Fold this protein.
Amino acid sequence: MSESEANVDWDAEARTFDEEADHGLRDPEIRRAWADRLRGWLPAGAADVLDLGCGTGTLSLLAAEQGHRVTGVDLSPAMVDLARAKLAGRDAAFLVGDAATPPVGEQRYDVVLVRHVLWTLPDPARVLRHWRGLLRPGGRLVLIEGRWGTVSPVGIPADRLAELLAPVAGHVRVERLSDDPLLWGKPVADERYAVVAME
């Protein structure tokens, strides 16, 4: 992930987005590794999951396969088209919109799932408050983030994200992901993690 990734033309990138091992999850072992992690982060029973910055819907598909009802939101119409095709026939809906302020009206969810999006947003504390407001009582935020690169790293360190979540969540659990090469298709040396934040 580079400094310019926040300014990428995602419509142009949509066609090849899933070619990255940790984007498309096409390798069965990588797919299984993400499915296992997701199973630990999401509720055991069927839940309503809001996947923000859903891209081509890869995590949405894993959640739907585990019995959850999914709403995905992405700013890129091309990404949303691919997600709709990927989840055709499943209990899933996809909307074009800004992950920071998703166009879901008064709808509330059991889970807000966000992968590699928060670090690109200008006011993460405000966005986290808004996302918290999209949850039903007892709901959870599942945030997959990191700090990528070694020379000029970009992203949010796990301890900083935990600080930002403290005012909006009673329980914050950080799960380190850097030491599991199956998730990324290769060994990684930078900081990658998931945070599950609940009331």
Remarks:
- The longest strand covers residues 135-148.
- Residues 28-41 form the longest helix (14 residues).
- The beta strands are 48-52, 69-74, 92-96, 109-115, 135-148, 154-155, 171-176, 191-198.
- The helical segments are 10-17, 21-24, 28-41, 58-65, 77-86, 124-133, 158-165, 181-184.
